[in-house]
Amino acid sequence: MSSIKVNQISKRFGNQQAVDRVSFEVEPGEIFGLLGPNGAGKTTSIRIILDIFKPDSGEVEILGGKMTDEKKNQIGYLPEERGLYQDITLEVCLNYLARLKGLKPAEAAARVEQMMKRFDLYDHRKKKVKELSKGMQQKAQLIITLVHDPQLVIIDEPFSALDPVNTQMVKDLLREERDKGKTIVMCTHQMHQVEELCDRLVLINHGKVMLYGKLSDIRRQYSGQEVIVHPLNELPAQIPGVSRIDRDNSGYILHLADQTTPQAILKNLVEQGIPLERFEVALPTLDEIFIQVVTSRGEVS
Ligand SMILES: Nc1ncnc2c1ncn2[C@@H]1O[C@H](COP(=O)(O)OP(=O)(O)OP(=O)(O)O)[C@@H](O)[C@H]1O
């Protein structure tokens, strides 16, 4: 059973087609990236998934069927626009919000204490929320998202305002949740975090699905335009089929001209008798793929 099954959903606001026949599935036990440039339709898609908006057409199944009140309690959502009560202490605020999520008072208190310790906020529990730093407030929001031990977590920019130590702590936590079989959908513009964390992803642009699948397959699909070469000696200044040669730390990156394959370049270098220590097809970064996809149009079915 998929955790989320989105089938051909569309949503229009006036003249704006915010979401256009989007389909994807998210499985239990995976961290799934929901990506796209500003205004692509990610938040609208999430709101449809969470039954905040009705789609104009298409269907969503969540945790095996239609959304219910009971299912809402199995979901943790960290939205883009966040709100915590500012004039009460962190401890009171977290306990209050934990109880709103259905935890009994003693259960809420124990869980909040445990999570404040995990998030390194325990020493700040008597501070008013408005006296907390941006990163601390972000961690408090993450506590609220996870406090009721949800089966499905949907988080928008989980690392915003976090320093590298806290970013690492949150990444470890997300991996732990994934390994326990939880489903995590992550919206972020930080592609290196997606590369590190996500098993699969969907990339939306102008409301349409542009890429969908396993990260490793997507990177392989976009490879082939660059090769990394470490020769024993210098490379010739010109190589047929190579449009540009850049120096890398200990070798070269060859940018291939259109219609040229890495195999053709390798054959040419070998025929020229150039001894090589390393020859490798470079996998593009997700950043490079993202820019390529959103600056040229194309759509997967
Ligand atoms: N309530 C609304 N009323 C009118 N238009 C809306 C509404 N919500 C979203 N839109 C429009 O729909 C499009 C998609 O917006 P959406 O918020 O889903 O994008 P996003 O991918 O989440 O962007 P970002 O990365 O900037 O948060 C945008 O053009 C936006 O202006």
Automatic annotation (TrEMBL):
The record's annotation in Pfam families points to: ABC_tran, DrrA1-3_C
Q: What is the lineage of its organism?
A: Bacteria, Bacillati, Chloroflexota, Anaerolineae, Anaerolineales
Regarding protein family, the annotation reads: Belongs to the ABC transporter superfamily.
Keywords recorded for this protein, A-Z: ATP-binding, Nucleotide-binding, Transport
Q: Does the keyword rRNA processing apply?
A: no
Give the organism, scientific name: Bellilinea caldifistulae
Q: What is this protein called?
A: Sodium ABC transporter
Instruction: Give all residue intervals belonging to the ABC transporter domain.
Output: 4-231
What PANTHER family does UniProt report for this protein, alphabetically?
Answer: ABC TRANSPORTER ATP-BINDING PROTEIN (PTHR42711), ABC TRANSPORTER ATP-BINDING PROTEIN NATA (PTHR42711:SF5)
Q: Which SMART domains match?
A: AAA
